[in-house]
Structure formats: C-alpha cells, structure tokens
Amino acid sequence: MQGADRIARVAADAGVRSVGIGGVSPTNVADLATTALDGVCVVSAIMAAPDPRAAAADLLARWEAGRGTR
Q: Side-chain half-sphere of 22: how many Cα atoms within 13 Å?
C-alpha cells in the first residue's frame, strides 16, 4: 500500500482528492483505508458477488474499520 499512500499524499498536498481504482477487494480495502486515499472505487468485487448488496455493505464496513486505525 506504500505506492497508493505516496501517490495519495502527493495529490493531497496539491489539493486534489484521490481514490483507489482497480483491484480493490475485501482482502485489501481495510489496508487501503489506512492510506491517504479519500475513497475507493469498487466494481468487480460487488458485481461478481452472489449478493451485491451484502458485498457492498461488507466492503464499506471493512473500509470504515480501516479508517478507524488511520
């Protein structure tokens, strides 16, 4: 996550908000939440899930949990 954090910090220093796009999954979203990213964009992990609503809720809960450790 160092690369994502470094890029997000450069963007933040320039006054630009940034989001992580691509490869975001339940296994890494909490780690991404600990970086300087403002958010994430998730498509595949939600749309490929048997229950997209539950998948989205799970990702949000994991993101919020990661934000708590920032």
A: 1
Q: Where are the beta strands (DSSP E) in the chain?
A: 19-21, 39-41
Is pTM beyond 0.85 here?
Answer: no
* Count of other CB atoms within 10 angstroms of residue 60: 13
| Bridge partner list, 41 | 21
User: Is the model's pLDDT at 2 over the cut of 80?
Assistant: no
Strand, coil or helix: 14: coil
- Inter-residue contact 45 to 24 (CB < 8 Å): yes
Which pair of tokens denotes residue 19?
Answer: 């989001």
CA 12/CA 22 separation, integer angstroms: 20
